[in-house]
Design brief:
The relative contact order is 0.12. Helices cover 93% and strands 0% of the residues. It contains two helices and no strands. By secondary structure, it is an all-alpha fold.
């Protein structure tokens, strides 16, 4: 259980780092008028944010199931 929680936290931390990097890349692309690059980065950023949201929803559901027991 503890290992699973640690893996989940590690996964989320990695996602947050990737999101921060993509946000910085997107900012640079927008400032440089690199429209296609910015569009691709926005799509990648959206996917990463979706993964983070799914991960957090899974944790909430796991906690709720513990409360039900």
């Amino acid at each position: 259980m503890i290992t699973q929680h640690y893996n989940s936290i590690n996964f989320e931390n990695n996602l947050l780092k990737q999101i921060k990097i993509k946000e910085n890349q997107l900012k640079i692309a927008q400032e440089s008028n690199m429209l296609y690059v910015a569009e691709a980065l926005e799509e990648e950023l959206s996917k990463l944010q979706g993964q983070l949201s799914e991960s957090q929803n899974g944790e909430v559901q796991a906690l709720m199931s513990l409360l039900d027991d």
